[in-house]
Amino acid sequence: MVKGQASEARTRLLTTATRLFYTEGIHAVGIDRIVAEAKVTRATLYRHFPGKDDLIVYYLQEADQAIRGQLDAIVAKGAPAPDTLRAIAANITEGIRSPGFRGCAFLNAASEYPDPAHPVHQAVLAHRHWFAGVITDVLAHLGNARAEVAARRFVLLRDGAMATGCLTDPAPVCETFLEGVEDLLRLHVTSRGNG
């Protein structure tokens, strides 16, 4: 097989797996279906990914990289911390309002792989640790010693919005999330220096 063809096959595998894992659930989608829809052989799949778990972890790592790119671009603008946090929140609501939104890929994966030692669960935890760190850093620029606590609140608000945004009309979910972020900012700024 020509090197370009292998790369093309790998791309098809990842694109197919990403679509199916996200829209239907990881356990619901078997290797045979991924191979058939990607129009590759099982041997091609295993040449690129030793097993389904490896493919799942790569799917999550790709999702992680996409989100990192979005947040890095927001943070790189150098806006004041409250505006940066608002922009991150707005980015989250854009995702919730997007067609085909089915919740957070990471929360969905964690629900299917609850064992903390499993590589899929570990990929979820790595993403969440990074995300919480970004939010903590943004909030720390407000000068409050309790930035980590405020960041945990933001992550909980985000998790709730992501979990409910696919169950009902996303507009009120997004509105409530954004109001919660404003409440968090007011509380964080008001309590600055009191923590």
From TrEMBL:
| Keyword set includes ATP-binding | no
* Name used for this protein in its record: TetR family transcriptional regulator
Q: Which GO terms describe its molecular function?
A: DNA-binding transcription factor activity; transcription cis-regulatory region binding
Key words, A-Z = DNA-binding
Question: Where in the numbering of this chain does the HTH tetR-type domain appear?
Answer: 7-67
Q: Which Pfam families match?
A: TetR_N (PF00440)
InterPro entries hit by this protein: Homeodomain-like_sf, HTH-type_TetR-like_transc_reg, HTH_TetR, Tet_transcr_reg_TetR-rel_C_sf
Alphabetical list of PANTHER family matching this protein: HTH-TYPE TRANSCRIPTIONAL REGULATOR RUTR, HTH-TYPE TRANSCRIPTIONAL REPRESSOR BDCR
Q: Which residues bind DNA?
A: 30-49
